[in-house]
Write a structure and sequence with these properties.
Mean pLDDT: 95
Strand order of the largest sheet: 2-3-6-4-5
Number of domains: 2
CATH class of the largest domain: Alpha Beta
Number of helices: 5
Helix content: 25-40%
């Protein structure tokens, strides 16, 4: 069952850790889709083309089922898992941390790597602003322009997030409805004649 709220970070944050010449730069980002993650990772790789490794972990969704880790060439379990551990320690989701390593010439060993990736990730989250956000359920509303004001009254009243709007003679509005307001929102919209409200199924 979906929760009403989740915890994430408000905006990107960075952290740094150094050990025996190696530098570990951690970048924490809020994100909402796997497509977002791919863009973020590509950008970080472009910014640090000479780095030895670009390791990462993310947690996505509200039932803690979707996650991914990458050691990117480091010994198995020495990078991605420690990064994910920091995300999970604060019970965050919709968060990715990418740790860029510049090799300093001295091998750190698996315990040293685990500590380094964990520490860099920890530092980035210490700099982040953690926020409580409502879980949003996506809906598409279709209606005649003449009742736009009636529809928007409830969209604003229930603090819905507008993803997309096409305001012509016939309007299409895609919104995220906070789960805690969903029943009341559905009730109010159903009371307006001429509005079609359908749930947008998430992509698998």
């Amino acid at each position: 069952m979906l929760p009403d709220f989740y915890y994430s970070i408000e905006k990107p944050a960075t952290g740094e850790y150094k050990d025996r010449g190696s530098k570990f730069l951690a970048y924490a980002f809020p994100f909402a889709t796997v497509a977002d993650f791919k863009l973020i990772l590509a950008r970080i790789k472009k910014e640090h083309p000479k780095a030895a490794h670009h390791c990462f972990a993310y947690r996505l969704g509200f039932e803690n089922l979707v996650f991914r880790v990458s050691d990117d060439g480091e010994p198995s379990g020495s990078a991605g898992r420690p990064i994910l551990g920091q995300i999970d320690s604060l019970q965050l989701t919709n968060v990715i941390i990418i740790v860029v390593r510049y090799f300093g010439g001295t091998l750190l060993g698996v315990p040293g790597l685990i500590h380094a990736y964990k520490s860099a990730s920890y530092e980035s989250l210490q700099q982040a602003v953690i926020v409580k956000k409502p879980v949003l359920i996506s809906y598409r509303l279709q209606f005649d322009y003449t009742i736009l004001n009636q529809v928007m009254r409830w969209v604003k009243q229930f603090e819905c997030e507008v993803y997309k709007n096409e305001m012509q003679l016939f309007c299409i509005l895609e919104i995220g409805v906070p789960k805690i307001h969903l029943q009341e929102m559905e009730k109010r919209i159903s009371e307006i004649n001429g509005v079609e409200m359908e749930k947008i199924l998430s992509e698998s």
